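input
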Amino acid sequence: ISPRAPEAAPAPAAAAQPAGRPRSEIVADVQRELQRRRLYDGTIDGLTGPKTEAAIRKFETEQRLSPTGEASEALLARLKRGGPAQA
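output
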């Protein structure tokens, strides 16, 4: 009997993702909130790229958070309650 193939283990991204909404939905919602705050001028596509990461880091820095550039439900909640959008 041969050992199980390594692909049977969950992928790191899947293991890190909490149960619930798909990551692409979370990222798209974060992009919308960042756009509303005029921190993001890219496409709302649910994909994390350089513009999304830079906008997240800018928001995190403005909020005196440790800049990670990572979209998450916690970040989304903070975006929604983090004060008024920029004019």
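quick obs: Residues 8-15 have pLDDT under 50 and may be disordered.
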